[in-house]
Specification:
With about 150 residues, the chain is an alpha/beta fold. It contains five helices and five strands, in the order E-E-E-H-E-H-E-H-H-H. The chain has a single domain, classed as 2-Layer Sandwich (Nucleotidyltransferase, domain 5), CATH 3.30.420.10. Strand 4, helix 2 and strand 5 form a beta-alpha-beta unit.
Length: about 150
């Protein structure tokens, strides 16, 4: 089964998967230990065709400690994708939000509501909603490329 990955880095983020039909296929939050997140991903890695990781940057007003911690999470997440050999690209928050019609302005409740509309039976939380929507963005982008003969 083809799966598509979305990764929202940070302590309150997650890794999520949707299948080729756009159905929710699972997620794991970064509140789990990195070995747990890694094992969860490695159990599914052979089915993952493409992924997107949210491209993040520092923001005015954030403290040095919080930005350092956030940067560590981003680096771990990127290394996880690279070492798993999952084809992926970075996506700006505004780009995936626009594609998913949910400009959040940083409010995770907006993305949670959007994800709940698309997957009413899935266990959507504030922690995994962005990752699930990013995974759906990955699926749509991959499908468009494959439709033009640019996929795998």
């Amino acid at each position: 089964m083809d799966l598509f990955l979305g990764l929202d880095p940070g302590r309150s983020g997650a890794v999520a998967l949707v299948d080729q039909e756009g159905r929710y296929a699972g997620s794991v939050n970064f509140t789990q230990t990195m070995p747990d997140v890694t094992m969860w991903l490695l159990e599914r890695v052979h089915d993952i065709r493409y992924g997107l990781i949210e491209k993040v940057a520092s923001r005015t007003g954030q403290g040095v400690k919080s930005m350092f911690t956030f940067g560590r999470y981003y680096g771990r997440a990127e290394q996880l994708l690279c070492s798993s050999r999952i084809p992926h690209h970075a996506v700006l928050p505004a780009d995936w939000e626009r594609e998913m019609c949910c400009l959040t302005g940083g409010d995770k409740k907006v993305s949670k509501e959007a994800a709940q509309r698309l997957w009413p039976d899935a266990p959507i939380t504030l922690k995994n909603a962005d990752a699930i929507l990013i995974a759906e963005t990955a699926r749509r982008r991959f499908s468009r490329r494959a439709g033009r003969g640019e996929g795998q």
